[in-house]
Amino acid sequence: MRKMNFVTLSMMLFFLLFIGSWYFVIVAENASLSELFTEKNASHAAEFFKGLIGVGEDNNAFLSKTSWKQALGLTRETLQMSMMAIGFSTIVMFLTVIPAARNVADGTLTLSQKWHSWLSYGLIRASYVVSRAIPELVWAMIVIFIFKPGILPGAIALALHNFGILGKLCAEAIEDSDSRPVRNLAAAGASKTQILLYGVLPAVLPQFLTYILYRWEVIMRTTIVVGMVGAGGLGQQFKLNMSFFHYTEVSLLLVCYLILVFIADFISERSRSFVK
Amino acid sequence: MMNFELHKRKILTFILLLAFVWSLLPVDWDKGLLHAGGLAMAGQIFEAALHPDFSPDMIMLALESAWITLAYATAGMSLALVLAFFLGLLASGILAPGNKSRRWLKRIFRGVLSFMRAIHELVWALIFVASFGLTPYAAIFALAIPYGGMLGRIFAEMLEDVPAEPIQALKMTGASAWQCIFYGYLPIVRAGIISYSMYRFECSVRSSAIMSFIGLGGLGYQIQLSLDDLAYSQMWTFLFFLILLVVIIDGWSTLLRRRLGS
Amino acid sequence: MAQETMIELNRISKHYGRKIALSSLSFVINKGEHVAVIGPSGAGKTSMLNILASMLPADDGEILVDGKPLDSYCDRKSRAQKIGMVRQQFDLVPQLAVIHNVLAGRLSDWSLWKSVLSLLIPQDKGRAIEALDRVGLSDKVFERTSSLSGGEQQRVALARLLVQDPEIILADEPVASLDPARAEDILKMLTRIAAEENQTLVASLHSVDYALKYFSRVIALKDGKLFFDRPVSEVSDTLLAELYSLEGNSQK
């Protein structure tokens, strides 16, 4: 009965939040929906969409060889940025994931408990939370201050956000893993490292691979965003063209971006079913 | 058989490693990666995390921005749910009368859903702002479209996984297609939908925070302003509020999912 | 005694790919009869009931229900008034409260608006409670269906059938997943309700004992063909032994 109550309470809370939010948007922010659909806005929007498909533009980017060349170059750069990002986050994840699993920290998995394992568990988990809670874009804004422009700061910003997510998912995979083989290994006199290498990793690696591919998909979709603050790739050019009203260039870049995202979806899905 | 399986994984891992190495090539590693003084700057930024600006004015501003972020996220999410309900219903194909029309319905609406979620919310936001100006609706619609796409796909998959027996039994009692939806499909997928939406709600708060990048208020806007002023300790105040907001919602959704799951 | 014909099967055939489920099956069932359909698994019992319920199209042959072809009951309302069905307990929506599962029997009469409203404020509540009372579940009206035991869930399905009130009840292995005591309980209730409401009952059963105990007539199927069709009093042990012998199956 208590179980149902919490669910009902949450629903009511969400409902209150819902009312409050729309009240805030409509009344406090004074944003009227009808104003959106005025004639002025409609002509504005029509203009914009006409621009996107290149009606009345003097130099249509779809017909320009240099534009295509630039767009394809940026597409390759973006692809590399996404791969670098998932590579970096995977490396950081692998370095931190083992102490971040609860069953490693409390010793059920390694059968050895030390006082500092709880400390490292707490620290790593806290870093995961911070990493996860701060969006890629904000990370990018900070990283841009430190690194020279290019795809590297973009990749680092993406990695900073994703290692937390990847770490959390993978640590949970270790927590859910079966502890019986580990006990057998321990009974056979294996050391702590041997237990991890032979007992734990083989069982969780396939799961890790799935998560890595899934996150790569998401990163692909986000590359355009970190680019917008100057971290290279399609996004940077997208933002520039948007502010110069080069709308056909914008739609050319959007097409490239969409193709990238769909290819990433396809590859990730295929390789996940390939190793299943 | 087992050996082959192992090899498949090794091959894939090897390919992924190669891809990673290829991605490192364009970076000019020798010429220095950091700005002159970049390290000192990093030091300043992260040192500021230790003493964020918690003056009352700042706290008030941060609270207000956090509310804006949360309000946009909630409004966007509620629209996303409506979109996901109708599009997911269509994409699941349960409303289609025959097999052939079902295939077409599924194909078309799955395409629509994946298009909606392929484009990042910030890109949608830029498009909306360009077409009807800087209004909160630009942010709300920009959130609603990709999140509607994500939720809609999961919703469609859940509907397809509903066991056939109860639905057939409902049809035998003379229920129409829509009655089957209200008496069969919806009650069966309800818990799953709530869980997944709560999980996505957390993500939407983060997305809502970055909407401000294009000039709509909220935590992200304040973060950007303080970064422009090089006021790092103020930036950390807003960052901590963002982290707090995300952690609270994450905790809420985890609790709720645990209750619903067991 | 002049008897009204309720169901008439005329040379019904059905096959899945090359496997024959029913071959040229014909029989007649009168109004108010209680018929058990028995036979080894794979004999075509479920196919036959699904065809009768028009959930499955027959490849060949015709079916008359109450003198009219089965296809003529194409709108959901007239079909629901004519034919109702119970199967194993997976028939209910486990997440709904008991009363909504029972009231699902009224859906053919209700508009969409009324049926959605009923999920909030149960409509025709008296009728549902009366039905639940008759199956002995009047104390569980508002419980979640998934919290009920298997036998109780099957009683909810019977209550739904009471609310739907069709002229023909098709029961496909209604007690397959229940223990013997519960199974007898459900069968007793099912046959009693059918008798009280003057309904025609056709039930497929895996157990011959139940068929002999609760029904008046037995139709035996083997390899999709009619093996025998006779009153319970004329079913002999030798016939049954032949029905369940493995010989006939070996040629497949």
Automatic annotation (TrEMBL), chain A:
One of its GO terms (cellular component) is plasma membrane. This is ABC transporter permease subunit. Residues 75-268 form the ABC transmembrane type-1 domain. Keywords: Cell membrane, Membrane, Transmembrane, Transmembrane helix, Transport. The lineage of its organism: Bacteria, Bacillati, Bacillota, Bacilli, Bacillales. InterPro entries: MetI-like, MetI-like_sf. It comes from Mesobacillus zeae. PROSITE patterns: ABC_TM1. Its main location: membrane. It is a multi-pass membrane protein.
TrEMBL record, chain B:
It is found in: Cell membrane. Keywords: Cell membrane, Membrane, Transmembrane, Transmembrane helix, Transport. One of its GO terms (biological process) is transmembrane transport. InterPro entries: MetI-like, MetI-like_sf. Residues 66-253 form the ABC transmembrane type-1 domain. CDD domains: TM_PBP2 (cd06261). PROSITE patterns: ABC_TM1 (PS50928). Pfam families: BPD_transp_1. The keyword Cytoplasm does not apply. GO terms for cellular component: plasma membrane. It is a multi-pass membrane protein. The keyword NAD does not apply. The chain crosses the membrane at residues 66-97, 118-145, 175-193, 205-223, 235-256. Belongs to the binding-protein-dependent transport system permease family. This is ABC transporter permease subunit.
